[in-house]
Each structure stands twice: as C-alpha cells, then as structure tokens.
C-alpha cells in the first residue's frame, strides 16, 4: 500500500461522533396553540436512473430511535435491503448500532454486518467508541461537556495507527477540527501528519444534532480494517462524520492548510419549521481545474409526535 493512500485513508477515519443526547427540537407555534414536535421519518438518497434509496426511521414508545429500514425504489426486490438496529442500556443510553445488509441477488452472498459499540464515563459522557471491525476512539471533555479532544488507535498484523484530534466550538457549533496522525509498520514510518478543517453554518435547526450515528446505504459502510482500508461514510456521526456535532447545519467545510484539497459545500431547502427538507452536497476542486461535482442529494421527511 502506498503511504499517500494510507494517509488519506486514516485521515478520513480520524473524526468524531456526536457525543451528547439528542436534542428535543420543539417548533415555535402561535401563542395558544399546542406545541408541535417533529422528528425525521425518512431520508431519501437520489440515485442515477431515477432510482432512490429510502431510509425509514422507527421509534420506540419512549421516542428513542430504534431501527432504520433501507430499501430501493421503485422496486425493492431487485436491490439489497438493510436493517439498522439501535440498542440502549437501562439508563436509556445508546450502546450499540448493528447494521446488516441482505445482498442482491438474495441467497447468493452472505449478509454483511457492521457494529458500533459505545462506552460511558462516570459523568455520562461517551468515553469510547469501538467500530467492531477495528477502530477505537477515546474522548476528553471540557467543563461544559463539549468534546475537546480524542485519541484514535488501531493495530493489526504489525500495522499501528495512533492519532489525536482537537475540537473548537463557537457556541454550539463545531467550527474547527485539527488532527495529527502517525502510522508505523510493514516497513512504513510516516512523519507526523494532520489536517485542519474549518466549518461554517446556517442559522437553521440541524435535525441530527446529538444523534450518535445514522449509517448511509450500502455499498458504504461494512469496513473491515483488518483486511483492507476504508471508511464507513455515515450520513451523520459514526467514526467519519462531524455534521451532527453542530446545532446548526453545516454550509461549508475546507482544509485551509491544503490548497490542493477539495472544498465541500451544502445547499439546503427548508420547510416552515426551518428544518432542511433537501440537501445538495457539492465538491469543488481548487483552480486551475475548479471542477464542481454534485456528490449527493438527500431529501428529508418528518412526522409529528
């Protein structure tokens, strides 16, 4: 494996998950009206050829996210089907996501599974996240219960990865994230490297603020770091997405220390409750190429509860 590719892979892994309980986003209504609360019902991912993948959310009697069913439209019988199951402890703290995909054609391939396991410290904060296929993240906090840093560790077959990160918040939004990285093993010793991402935000409600992890559809996810590099590429949270660390929706993300790096922008359409109902993700390469590419379009549907 070339060291450059290894660096790009690991840098993509050294990110954080939402580390606080899910916020209860009550929507403002006229005086005298009963409060209306909205929660995500579905995420629809647009695909080529007029196909879409729908992730349908289910909640338990206490309002906690319990499951996500992901399937293709217009015909779910000619594509994989995915089942995400959320588990909680006796204190109603999220402890595990089990994400399983039934591949197509049915019965020709074994199902694939990925899992995230969460541990907590005495203050009730997430102290560790283990991606069962290999990666472990450990966190530290400030006096206001915001994450200030993390370490990331992985070791297999003589390859060792050690990393760290620091977070900067402005109010309740993550505005900067810096990482350092060291990789050794297999005759490779890379110098300490890192990244410095900065983020801007809108002034609208982020419906995924505080959500721990929302997986994106297959073929994303299902990484086994013991056999090959990769990153799960979750919609929100997990080990490779920080968009749910901010109270408002991220508009741009960029690493100003790498002029050759792409910049990411998000364009939103909102409903009357100031919640996003459509998000277009665009990648822009620096000049002279300056290419702009639509990476993904998501549609969000809500239900009252």
TrEMBL record:
Listed name of the protein: RHS repeat protein
Source organism of the structure: Spirosoma aureum
């Amino acid at each position: 494996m070339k060291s450059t590719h290894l660096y790009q892979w690991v840098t993509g892994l050294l990110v954080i998950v939402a580390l606080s309980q899910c916020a209860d986003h009550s929507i403002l209504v006229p005086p005298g009206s009963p409060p209306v609360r909205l929660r995500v019902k579905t995420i629809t991912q647009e695909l080529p050829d007029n196909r879409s993948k729908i992730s349908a959310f289910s909640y338990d009697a206490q309002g906690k996210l319990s499951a996500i069913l992901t399937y293709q439209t217009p015909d779910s019988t000619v594509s994989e089907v995915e089942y995400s199951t959320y588990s909680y402890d006796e204190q109603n703290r999220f402890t595990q996501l089990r994400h399983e995909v039934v591949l197509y054609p049915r019965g020709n391939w074994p199902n694939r599974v990925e899992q995230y396991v969460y541990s907590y410290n005495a203050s009730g904060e997430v102290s560790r996240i283990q991606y069962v296929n290999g990666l472990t993240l450990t966190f530290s906090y400030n006096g206001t219960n915001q994450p200030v840093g993390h370490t990331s560790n992985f070791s297999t077959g003589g390859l060792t990865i050690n990393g760290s990160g620091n977070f900067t918040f402005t109010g309740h939004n993550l505005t900067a994230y810096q990482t350092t990285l060291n990789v050794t093993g297999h005759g490779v010793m890379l110098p300490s490297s890192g990244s410095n991402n900065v983020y801007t935000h809108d002034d609208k409600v982020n419906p995924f603020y505080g959500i721990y992890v929302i997986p994106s559809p297959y073929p994303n996810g299902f990484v086994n770091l013991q056999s090959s590099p990769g990153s799960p590429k979750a919609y929100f949270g997990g080990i490779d997405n920080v968009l749910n660390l901010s109270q408002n929706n991220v508009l741009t993300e960029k690493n100003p220390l790498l002029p050759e790096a792409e910049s990411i922008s998000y364009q939103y359409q909102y409903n009357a409750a100031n919640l996003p109902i459509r998000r277009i993700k665009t990648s822009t390469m620096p000049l002279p190429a300056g290419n702009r590419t639509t990476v993904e379009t998501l549609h969000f549907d809500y239900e009252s509860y």
